[in-house]
Amino acid sequence: MAKSQGLSGALTDHTLVLATRCGTCLEKGASAQDLTDIVRGKQAELLHYFCYLLGDPSFPEKELSELQWGLFEIDVDGNPIPPGISMLHESVLSTDPTGREMRPRKEAK
């Protein structure tokens, strides 16, 4: 694989690797539906961890121990409206557009 130039090149290379591996899985008998479920599951997992980090950064570095951030609705002037939006990680499963909350799909009979 050619060396990437910057983040955009790295993402392009990464996408190419994923596409190649997905093609290999399909050739070996995995279904496109199975691959879709795997990718969607990994996306939900990443979103869950990211949302959890927003709520509890727990920086081990002493210099960052006082650092906090928050997600807020804002008023028309851009000022935060308390309370902050918290516990986002608990709502990740409800964002599944299939309505299954990342549960396995029912097998066709």
Mean pLDDT: 81
Number of helices: 2
**Structural Rg:** 20 Å
- Broad structural category: mainly alpha
Note down, in words, how this protein is organized:
By secondary structure, the protein is mainly alpha-helical. It has one domain (13-95). 42% of the residues lie in helices and 9% in strands. A hairpin with a 5-residue loop joins strand 1 (71-74) and strand 2. The longest helix is centred in the middle third of the chain and has 24 residues, at 32-55. 1% of the residues are buried.
Question: Topology, pairings included?
Answer:
Elements: H1 6-27, H2 32-55, E1 71-74, E2 80-85
Antiparallel strand pairs: 1-2
Labels describing this entry:
two-stranded antiparallel sheet; 109 residues; 2 helices; mainly alpha
Give a concise summary.
42% of the residues lie in helices and 9% in strands. It has 109 residues and is mainly alpha-helical.
